[in-house]
Amino acid sequence: MTLPEGVRERRVRTGGIELCVAELGEPGRPTVVLVHGYPDSKEVWSEVASRLVDRHGFHVVLYDVRGHGRSGVPRPLRGGFTLEKLTDDFLAVVDAVSPDRPVHLVGHDWGSVQSWEFVTVERTRGRIASFTSMSGPSLDHFGHWINKRLTRPTPRRVGQLLGQGAKSWYVYLLHTPVLPELAWRGPLGKRWPGILRRIEKVPAGDYPTPSLASDAANGAWLYRDNVRPRLRRPRADAHAHAPVQLITPSGDRFLSERLYDELAHWVPRLTRRTIPAGHWIPRTRPDRLASWIDDFVTSVERDQERERERTREGGGEVAGEAWSDGVGGPARKAATGRYAERFGGQLVLVTGAGSGIGRATAFAFAEAGARVIAVDRDAESASRTAELSLLAGAPEAWAEAVDVSDEQAMETLAAKVHAEHGVVDVLVNNAGIGLSGSFFDTTPEDWRRVLDVNLWGVIHGCRLFGRQMAERGQGGHIVNTASAAAYQPSKALPAYSTSKAAVLMLSECLRAELADQDIGVTAICPGLVNTNITATASFVGVDAQEERRRQKRSTRVYGLRNYPPEKVADAVLRAVALDRAMVPVTPEARVSYALARFLPRALRALARVGPPL
Ligand SMILES: NC(=O)c1ccc[n+]([C@@H]2O[C@H](COP(=O)([O-])OP(=O)(O)OC[C@H]3O[C@@H](n4cnc5c(N)ncnc54)[C@H](O)[C@@H]3O)[C@@H](O)[C@H]2O)c1
Q1: What is the pLDDT of residues 368-411, one digit of tens each?
Q2: What is the domain-level CATH number for residue 505?
Q3: pLDDT > 50? residue 319
Q4: Which residue has the higher pLDDT, 165 or 121?
Q5: Ligand 1 center from residue 531 Cα (angstroms)
Q6: How many domains does the chain have?
Q7: Ligand 1, pocket-test mutation among 359, 375, 376, 413, most atoms within 8 A of CB
Q8: Which of 17, 183, 379, 592 is at a distance of 20 to 30 A from 251, taking alpha carbons?
Q9: Is 563 a catalytic residue?
Q10: How close is the Cα of 536 to the center of ligand 1, in Å?
């Protein structure tokens, strides 16, 4: 394993030793500093570094942590690896490679543990633009996490403590004197490449570096100098002063995902991502990591540019339709929703978000800490949803006024979202209109209107945003709001029901097509939900006065039924989390679904009566 061609190396002096620092790419570009873990050297980043330079055009800096690779070894070892000294090293590297511009920090394993120190101590404020953390928690946050579970135990918390305790067996071993050194210089050192290949699926190659045995022996002092003192006395003020992206491998055998449950408390702007992989993701998932780092760094750079513009203009409102709170606005709520772990930091786009089910869905994702794009043809209500999403816990929210049936407008929206915010993780094609009336009263124009919004709107969304998801290659989820009308025929709703049946079938077909690409597709089929749809639905074949009377009547019936859109929103998040194909929501929708499957004749009889809408 070697660094890519074109690497420039230099030595940086710090605290009586020299660090070996490598640079790639144009120094004028945003600088990404990659910090390696234990027992690695900077070469663990070789695959990620080359992608960050070649594909994404960054200036990339890597260094061997003291005692590792070709950096100097502090003497004596004991006390030579404290977090204070590691912070001195980081600042010396940053002074050398990017003296005038804050850097984007990325850490894996112990590289992440020490980077948490860098991003939470005062003396680095202004030097770090963002931090991407992988498989390495802050020791202070970890200390508080343990204390909370010891002082306020519940069966769940005790289970979490025991779970992480079992995963930390190697930390106890590394605290024993001499033994780890002997093991690494002897059998463990020899077997390590094979172990990584077998258990972690790290590709074969010239990994690890020839200095593995001494890196691992010296690096044991990272643990001995820091773990016990910090876990015993965690700092109370360990808040991050830069936005953080947390990448959690779901198959990490050394760290429990639960460790990060309370992270939003420490990080004002947190983006969470989960990856189905083991611990050594810099080696096993370089493509995905490089593009996530790119997405995050680019969005932070853009926000900072906006902030600078705002300051230049004298601190006015954010231009256009964007609603962004910067870091930690006073009225903001931290994401606490039930699904915060699953959706925190994800980019979610909801159409028809100005009212009813769409607005409730935007809020539910906001409560889970997702970044929300609220799309509606009504600009004002979309903006209101974005504004309220920020208050509900979304780290960022934007509004876009777009008619989903307008192909061109949707193409422009997809390009804009991609350029400004990246690829959408969850797409909710929800915009829809109601239309009631017999088949012969429904004109071709009525058909076009309802199909254009209810079906074509969904097709445009799936085609444009779904393609971006597929091309990114990191999975995602599409939710299409169909209806119980999709499987429940009715003499009163031929056009509406046809549009929804098409959405249901489209969802099923697309689900089959995208399954191999980790993109889930869900059709949500609500029954009667108390929203504005009844007041805005068209009733064809009657005069305007009768139409208004029917709108009022169905609004009354739906009001009496009183099923809240928030419950549908909850079903949406649950369906995405569990990757459900089709979800009937409301008891009547579930009953008619059962009838459609087992007693279709009964459903046909009901079709002759027709629903209230
Ligand atoms: N309310 C129900 O009982 C019910 C039942 C089953 C399915 N649905 C479906 O749920 C979805 C949401 O409906 P709701 O009940 O929340 O209705 P709603 O009227 O409260 O909200 C719909 C939103 O979509 C927006 N919209 C309409 N046409 C649009 C377009 N062309 N482009 C962009 N935005 C557009 C509207 O401005 C509105 O803000 C619809 O697809 C509807 O068919 C509703």
Answers
A1: 889 999 999 999 999 999 999 999 988 889 999 999 999 999 99
A2: 3.40.50.720
A3: no
A4: 121
A5: 8
A6: 2
A7: 376
A8: 183
A9: no
A10: 9
